[in-house]
Design a protein that fits this description.
By secondary structure, this protein is α+β, with helices and mostly antiparallel strands. It has one domain: 3-Layer(aba) Sandwich (Aminopeptidase), CATH 3.40.630. 32% of the residues lie in helices and 27% in strands. An eight-stranded mixed β-sheet has the order 1-2-3-4-5-6-8-7, sandwiched between helices. The radius of gyration is 15 Å and the shape is globular. The two termini are 18 Å apart. The relative contact order is 0.16. The N terminus is likely disordered.
Length: 187
């Protein structure tokens, strides 16, 4: 299996960088995830990139949106953006450790429920990390996740190192299950 952004393969799925033709399907998957899986819906402060996927991911050479297609339908996404965690709401020490510009933040790792447990997220994240390693100027790969999303915490713990668990301090407020991770930069 080749895990490059230019055309990773996965049995019965096509994994590749998104094109303009994929954006509506990717946006629909992301919004469905916010409403159905997360239960809080679209929040402009957190999800601004989802409204303008083309400008955010296709028109910036340091950003990437990967999709997995099954039967022509977008069933999984993963993005890379050159931004670190925002302070607030995240702790200042994380914003300083992972500054925008030199941090490749993994975002929008979503897989439709009926396509989960097939290795798609792992394949997409590997391709995203390979992209970050091949893009000049990135020093770290960072992400944060909502551990209330089914399977999210276990998945990230299997491939990344925890750098901060906001649940232990309550810094994000009661009931927020945010854990921050770093993935080693591929060489």
């Amino acid at each position: 299996m080749t895990n490059t952004p230019e055309g990773a393969s996965h049995p019965s799925y096509t994994v590749r960088p998104a094109t303009t033709a994929d954006l509506e399907g990717a946006r629909r998957l992301m919004l469905d995830t916010f409403y159905r899986d997360f239960g809080y819906g679209y929040t402009p402060a957190w999800h601004r990139d989802v409204i303008d996927l083309a400008d955010t991911y296709l028109n910036d050479p340091r950003h990437l949106l990967l999709v997995a297609l099954h039967g022509g339908e977008v069933v999984a996404t993963t993005g890379v953006r050159s931004v670190g965690p925002a302070h607030p709401p995240h702790p200042r020490r994380l914003a300083e450790r992972y500054p925008s510009g030199t941090t490749a933040q993994i975002v929008r790792v979503y897989v439709r429920a009926e396509h989960r447990r097939h290795g798609l997220a792992r394949t997409l994240v590997r391709a995203a990390c390979d992209f970050a390693a091949a893009t000049p100027g990135y020093d770290a790969i960072y992400l944060h996740t909502n551990v209330h999303a089914e399977g999210a915490e276990g998945f990230w713990r299997s491939i990344a190192k925890e750098v901060f668990d906001a649940r232990t301090t309550g810094e994000h407020g009661p009931g927020v299950g945010t854990v921050h991770f770093e993935i080693p930069m591929p060489r």
